[in-house]
Amino acid sequence: MPSVDNVLVKIPVTEKQAAAMMATMPSATFDFAAPVGDTSRLPRTPKLDISRERVSQADVILGNVAPALIEASPRLQWIQLGSAGYEAYLAPGVLAPSTIVTNGTGAYGPAVAEHSFAMLLSLMKRLPAYRDDQRAHAWSDEGMVSTLAGARVLVLGAGDIGLCFARLCTAVGASCVGVRRHLPSMSTPEYEQAFSRVTTMDELVHMLPKADVVACFLPSSAETQGLVADAFLGSMKTGAYLVNAGRGDLIDQDALRRALEDGKLAGAALDVATPEPLPADDPLWDAPNLLITPHVAGFWHLHATLERVVALATENLRRYVRGEQLKNIVRG
């Protein structure tokens, strides 16, 4: 392992967690930019004023420093992201060629899956309409509802989050098919319990017309940007539901609005949009049977997510010191 003199930490930690991090590299200086103390009430890392000079002095960074501040620092050996997303850090000119990148995959499954599951069920049971009725003091019957029992759920992005979502759906009687870019080399008991089948994007055209729910947890890439457009939505089963908690650029939002207005879809639940924040005058806000939350499924809104990210970062520090394979390598 190359010498590590300075570790910049942009993940909130408790005093005990900070001590555990420092114990992995006793000779290094740990620069805790994020709060150290009680983290149980932090829904996300506070905005921090971190200088370029401070970033340039780091041999290792734990957390998501703004990519523009890194400037391909030749000193930076490794960055452990707190997020699952990493695309912005792989853009040209952000990192030196030798810098290792690891991400937070595995920490966000329960939080994002539960949020998405709650949004879907609330639409299926017309809860947003009943909340509107409550505010209007109106005792109204909003009509027929749907169920996940016996439903066919197509999960695009059958990684950690998709697996957690499928487990929730399976628990109430749905049958889930997972879609991945590449089939896993080996199945696991968790996969076999959550998914009746796992396939690739090549079969998407055959799967869409059969699905009662299409739930998307895909990263942003050239292949996924704008994937959910007129043709995709037109291939979906009439009366199906769409969920997206991956990246906003997956969806052509004008096409989605038309599909909701025409009654093609029974409803859609979005935790992400393009752009973010979604402008107040964007017509998407007023689409019928649409539930939007402002990209809050993840971050630290569920405190256990932050605990998992800190544990991952600390374990990877130990591995780095010992020269072992790091967890969640996305470049290096």
Automatic annotation (TrEMBL):
Keywords: NAD, Oxidoreductase. InterPro entries: D-isomer_2_OHA_DH_cat_dom (IPR006139), D-isomer_DH_CS (IPR029753), D-isomer_DH_NAD-bd (IPR006140), NAD(P)-bd_dom_sf (IPR036291). Residues 117-297 form the D-isomer specific 2-hydroxyacid dehydrogenase NAD-binding domain. Residues 52-330 form the D-isomer specific 2-hydroxyacid dehydrogenase catalytic domain. GO terms for molecular function: NAD binding; oxidoreductase activity, acting on the CH-OH group of donors, NAD or NADP as acceptor. PROSITE patterns: D_2_HYDROXYACID_DH_3. The keyword Cell membrane does not apply. Belongs to the D-isomer specific 2-hydroxyacid dehydrogenase family. PANTHER family: 2-HACID_DH_C DOMAIN-CONTAINING PROTEIN, D-ISOMER SPECIFIC 2-HYDROXYACID DEHYDROGENASE NAD-BINDING DOMAIN-CONTAINING PROTEIN. This is D-2-hydroxyacid dehydrogenase. It comes from Tractidigestivibacter scatoligenes (Olsenella scatoligenes).
